[in-house]
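Below sits my pick:
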Amino acid sequence: MTEDLRALQQDYLQNVHETAVRVRRQSRDLKTSFPELLFVAHQLKGSGGSLGFPRITELARRMSDELSLFFDPAETQRPTPEELSEMLIVLSHELEREVSAAQQRLQ
């Protein structure tokens, strides 16, 4: 692995960590943060795998799926706002654990 790629991955992981903290904070107010949370989930879903972090992609996909279910009024399995908030908090913690593990692997 080149040093440039390693540096890019390390920067990316730091950004994912900061994003996880932001998701946790914003998940408590879904009315105002929903669009940003959905954008962040899609962004992480696309970028994780391309930088060699498929677990981040999977967690972001789960986040995106849950947000999409919540947004779809026709969906019968729609989570309540409280359930979605809790799920986002859990997923943000999983993202942080994955970032820590990935950082260890890069060292």
